[in-house]
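Hello again,

I reread your note about wanting to compare the complex against the isolated chains. To keep things tidy I'm splitting this into two emails, and this first one only covers the full assembly. Below are the input lines as submitted, including protein chains and any nucleic acid or small-molecule components. They are followed by the predicted structure of everything together. The single-chain runs will come separately.
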Amino acid sequence: MSQIFHPSTNTISKVTLLGAVFFLAALLWVFGVIVRSPYVTEANVVRQQPVPFSHKHHVAGLGIECRYCHTTVETSAFAGMPSTKTCMTCHSQIWVDAPILEPVRASYRTDQSIEWTRVNDLPDFAYFNHSIHVKKGIGCETCHGPVDDMALAWRANSLNMEWCLDCHRDPARYVRPRDKVFEIGYKPAEDQRVLGERLMKEYAIDTQRAVLMNCSTCHR
Amino acid sequence: MSAEKPQGCEVPARPGLRRKGLHACCAPAVATRFLTSQFSLLTFCPLLALMLATSLGLAGCRQDMHDQPKAEPLERSDFFPDGRSARPWVVGTIARGQLREDEHLYTGKVHGRHAETFPFPVDARVLERGRERFDIYCSPCHSRLGDGNGMIVQRGFRRPTSFHDERLRKAPPGYFFDVITNGFGTMFDYADRIVPEDRWAIAAYIKALQLSQNTDPQILTTAERVRIDAMAGTPAGEGGPRQGGSTEEGGR
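Full-complex prediction:
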């Protein structure tokens, strides 16, 4: 009987087999890249808002503190969003005729909320709490990036579980003195490792990772 | 073997040389053979397509658990006509622990007149808290020094009277508490953003600030003056208010 396959197909089939393994690996890698890409995590995607509120203008330009608007960030899980009244404490007198502020004035007149587009949003099955992070010296900037440079807000980090755990595994790399939490552009005065280890002790941060790495801390 | 051989295509018999002998025109032949072989790409193709689709799909889609039927703070609700999931209190409701009986603490008044005293002892910690809150909520307009020349005023907001004005220096702490709670003229109230204890801390700090700007340096001890001079060397904007804290330690 004559040979159906030419001997060269031996090599080709071996190469294909081997190639398949690499191909699968590549596919997994592509998957990994996709789930971490801004396309899925929405990191670095600038959001359009009903009013083009600019942190750059209000924080860097006017020097208003985060807590002037995000009042509950120290005391509760939710950072708090400024009410229309908060905007109006200034805009009742400043830029009173500006058309871009009309939605704010309309909201004040009609008692209808302004609906901001969410920028950072965890899935509902994950639990996050601002107050503990603020108390234990994690800066807004560490998680939200250079907010004072955002003409419109964007998400600075993926907010993936991987990202939370990366810090929870070793928070000493990020902890700062409590009075520097709200500062954007903070640089540690000494070696971060030394400072971090000291502050971890001072703030009684869970060095055993018994809580920080426990599933039910964030999935409750 | 010869049966498979397309015309004009030379496939050498010796395996060792087969690569060399492959001619461009053999490609179709090789391809057909290859495609019919057991481990051909063809078998993989649907599988690969499926996997690619799944990974894209999995990565892109958000399942039910991501958006559960519960209301996160300030989340929109289609159930209530005003579109808010957070409901206002029913008029007359008093939550546990929020019965505001203490007139002094919650209104800043004693028998209807602005209180001259604080409802709790003021120490360095209270003043420090007051400084922090003042810098957050009041300094945009009143400036860190309390002279009424804050950034927002520079941008066109009505200029408030300086806290170092004679009239305000004589005003009792209860007056400042009252203004924070109920507003004053063009100034909105801060009752929704500052809890009563913090309002008192701010009032205490303003009193300290007033004292700091109107104290004869002669009454300070040398040690105190050295400390203040050291602080004056700190970056701009910090030295001023801090001085207030140090001269008034253990104040009222």
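For quick reference: Residues 103-236 of chain B form a domain with the Cytochrome Bc1 Complex; Chain D, domain 2 fold (CATH 1.10.760.10).

B.
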